[in-house]
Amino acid sequence: MSDRELQDLVLRALADAPFRASREWRDRALVEPGRLERFARFLARHFYYERIVHFFKYSRALARVTGRCPEAVLKSADFDALLATAVLGSRETARDVASLAVRHVKEVTPPPQLRYLNDLLRYEEAMMIAEAGPRVWRDSAHERAAGSSEPSAPERVEGTALLDLAYDLPAVLPRLLQSWVEVPQAPAQPVKLLIARSPHGRVTVARADAAVASVVELADGRKTLEQLAREAGLRATDLETTLVGLSDLGAVRFATGS
Amino acid sequence: MAPLMVGAFYNPHLGAELARAQGVDHLAMADPPAPTDPHWPAIKARYTLLLHDYLGQLSEPLDERSIARARALAELYRTPWVAEHFQCLHTEDGRYNINYVFPPLYTDEFLRRFVANAKALQARLDQPLVMENIPGFFDVKASQLPEPVWLRRFFDQTGAGFLLDLPHVWLEAHYRGVKPATWLAEFPLEQVVELHVAGVEEDQDLEGPWIAPAEPTDEMLDFTALAVSRCPAAKAVTFDAFAPSLTSDVLFKSVERIREAL
Questions:
Q1: How many angstroms separate the CA atoms of A30 and A42, rounded?
Q2: What are residue A196's DSSP bridge partners?
Q3: Out of A3, A12, A30, closest to residue B110 by CB
Q4: How far is A211 from chain B (nearest CA, A)?
Q5: B145 in reach of chain A (CB within 8 A)
Q6: Which one of A89, A170, B191, B236 has the lowest number of neighbouring Cβ atoms within 10 Å?
Q7: Domain for residue A22, yes or no?
Q8: Mean pLDDT for chain A?
């Protein structure tokens, strides 16, 4: 085993609690277990602090009205209980931690001027879950070559989410981060939002029209472009334009065949 | 010797205060400015800015995207040097990422990797590269060399500058049970270009002290004065705190106290 592979084992032990507890890891006796466990717990709290502060920033901005800071969950017994199974960066752990943050903020009755709070929390939770999962840290010649292959069979990328909201959140979000006295209001206007993550980890939100939504829902990695166009009710050129946009956002990828 | 610059990190939530502050010579940039940051134009016009972003881990070669990003940020900031860390925090396959600075194994293989990849990066930058030491909370039995020896070999082989993070040295000394000054003397101090100073606080998970967005203690300031006296090529001392919880009082008081200690 190379030193680089050994380093990867240490990193996995720090990130992956079940692996840290496994015989496979413990038998190697590379690190004093007590120190490793303490550092892993420190890292987990730091990892999810950064994510909650980033993805729940609008709820944080509203904390002076709700009285609830979402990051407070990181000091709770519920979060401590998650540490035994947490895998930093995994979608499952992101879902668990985001759910704790949502529950914490929702525990109080929202003030009447915050009718859109439930929508906001669903939005923030979806952002945090979408960001999770393995990511590409550096481009390689191999990946560039693969990306240049003829596309076929578009497939919705895991973590991509379509959200149906009762309030037009994009209209209010920037104002929540500015200084305000009266809570900024979101128009009661239904919107559908697409949340996607690029292979490099950038999370993007876009308003989704009916065409975008149907392509995202139908793209299962098996339907050909012709089948997809037919089922979505789109012309071939419109489908191509839609797929290019979705691919750029990271919402769909193309199975390139064997 | 030119007078030392004393500065801090740019914390965007303190942008308004920093834009009109006195007594801060430079700002290190951990993140690119947000497009909506109203204070960025004033910050850019007023301060010497040091590029201190995550560019990539030098256990692998940086790809073209990362190099282009580093060059663009260096040009945007007009930075006098470009900083990176001796870190290896994600697995090669991208599956595991601890999202926190973490040192490589101090082995010959990793030394070769870091030297080769740092030289490749240096060749693409228009500014000198400086590299920051990272604290180890535990030893990994696979490491072959003491950290200071490994660092010295890296600097000798690359000509890169040393960004000496003093709390990192102090913490390592604490967890090794040795005097900070004794541990500090092992490091290649003649290569130091910039020093980082920060506060440390008790961490419940670690059951001991760790870096925190707090004022440096008197002990840390004394340690800073000692270190600076042994770093003849040092050009800047930076209060190393970058956190949403950092207050302007702590930032400005820390910079002032660092300046007084030197």
A1: 19
A2: A204
A3: A3
A4: 30
A5: no
A6: A170
A7: no
A8: 90
B177 in A contact zone (CB under 8 Å)? no
Q: Spell out the domains of chain B, with CATH numbers in brackets.
A: 5-261 (3.20.20.150)
Find residues 94-123 of chain B whose CB sits inside 8 Å of chain A: 94-100, 102, 104-105, 107, 109-110, 113
Q: Three-class SS of residue A165?
A: strand
Contact B170, B180 (CB under 8 A): yes
- Assigned token pair, B23: 């007594």
* Contact indicator for B155, B128 with CB cutoff of 8 Å: no
- Helix or strand or coil: residue A200? coil
Q: Is residue A162 part of a domain?
A: yes
Question: Residue A238 is part of which domain span?
Answer: 136-258
The count of C-alpha atoms lying within 13 angstroms of the C-alpha of A105, restricted to the half-sphere facing its C-beta, is 30
d(CA B166, CA B219): 12
Nearest CA in chain A to B113: A4
pLDDT digits (tens, 9 = 90+) for A28-71: 999 999 999 999 999 999 999 999 999 999 999 999 999 999 99
- On whether any CB of chain B is under 8 Å from the CB of A139, the answer is yes
Q: Are B74 and B82 in contact (CB under 8 A)?
A: yes
Contact between A138 and B137 using a beta-carbon 8 Å cutoff: no
- A115-140 pLDDT, tens digit each: 999 999 999 999 999 999 888 887 76
**Residue A52 lies inside a defined structural domain of this protein:** no
Each residue's pLDDT, cut to its tens digit, for chain B (262 residues) gives 678 999 999 999 999 999 999 999 999 999 999 998 999 999 999 999 999 999 999 999 999 999 999 999 999 999 999 999 999 999 999 899 999 999 999 999 999 999 999 999 999 999 999 999 999 999 999 889 999 999 999 999 999 999 999 999 999 999 999 999 999 999 999 999 999 999 999 999 999 999 999 999 999 999 999 999 999 999 999 999 999 889 999 999 999 999 999 9
Distance of CA A221 to the CA centre of its chain: 21
Structural domain includes residue A31: no
> Which chain B residue has the Cα nearest residue A140?
B63
Residue A45 with chain B: CB contacts under 8 Å: 205
Is the CB of A103 inside 8 Å of chain B's CB atoms? no
C-alpha span between A217 and A160 (Å, rounded) = 10
Q: What is the pTM of this model?
A: 0.91
Tally of structural domains, chain A: 1
Q: ipTM of the predicted structure?
A: 0.94
| Chain B CB within 8 Å of residue A84 CB | no
Q: Where are the beta strands (DSSP E) in A76-232?
A: 154-156, 161-165, 191-197, 203-207
Place of tokens 């929540």: A176
Task: Kindly state the tokens that stand for B242.
Answer: 């970058």
Residue contact B98–A11, C-beta within 8 A = yes
Is residue B91 a contact partner of residue A8, using CB atoms and an 8 Å limit? yes
